[in-house]
Amino acid sequence: MASERDDDLRESARHRGLKLVKSRRRKAGGDAGKFGLTDASGKELFGFGADGLTASADEIADYLRGASRSDWAEAAKGLPKRKPEPKPKAAPKPKLKKLAVANLLAKLPSAKRDEVFTEVLARPGVRIERIVSGGQVTPADKPFEQDADEWVMLLAGSAAIRLDGYAEVSLKPGDHLTIPAGVRHRVTRTDADVPTVWLAVHLG
To answer: In what order do the strands lie in the sheet with 169-171?
Structure first.
């Protein structure tokens, strides 16, 4: 085993351009079993003392490992610096269209003289409109009567409405009802102090 270890150290030193020297003396108290290292010209580098060789096999191995690391560091100084990998570009964010938002209670038209009807949406089978009232009522002799159902909601103000065959009802913001087709009806009160705003959905 010692011979194999010696051969390994000798080969490792050779790869470093060095030479392994091993004591052959058997004299008690001498340097038997000790090692040293010289360069190719025979110059003593490590493991030499006044009385002979001084390094153990483990110390020679440590020296060679350290020399290897040092040589690699020196060699690495001359290597071109590796450029960092470019970061992948983030995918461009999709350009979003601006959504049109309207407010049924913003910029209300004046309804002091007459009610104001504004169409909000019209599609086959449905029409939505905003109605702004300012104290108007439906004349008793001219009630409304429609061919299609109508759903209405009071958004602001206050009002009252009467349908044929039904008692009059008062409405406050958030209240809604359905007026069946063919049923005569009329608005009997709207707030005169603040705008009364309706949302009407005509079906059919």
So the answer is: 169-171, 159-163, 185-190
- Model-level pTM? 0.55
DSSP 11-43: HHHHHTTEEEEE-----TTS-TT-EEEEETT--
Q: What pLDDT, on the 0 to 100 scale, is given for residue 77?
A: 57
Radius of gyration of the chain (CA): 52
Residue 161 CB neighbours (<10 A): 24
> Which H or E element spans position 71?
helix 57-77
φ and ψ of 141, to 5 deg: -90, 5
Asked if the model's pLDDT at residue 89 lies above 60, the reply is yes
Using CA atoms, how far apart are residues 31 and 49, in angstroms rounded to an integer?
10
Compute the distance between CA of residue 7 and CA of residue 3 in angstroms, rounded to an integer: 6
| Cα–Cα distance, 119 to 72 (Å, whole number) | 83
Is the separation of the CB atoms in 7 and 20 below 8 Å?
no
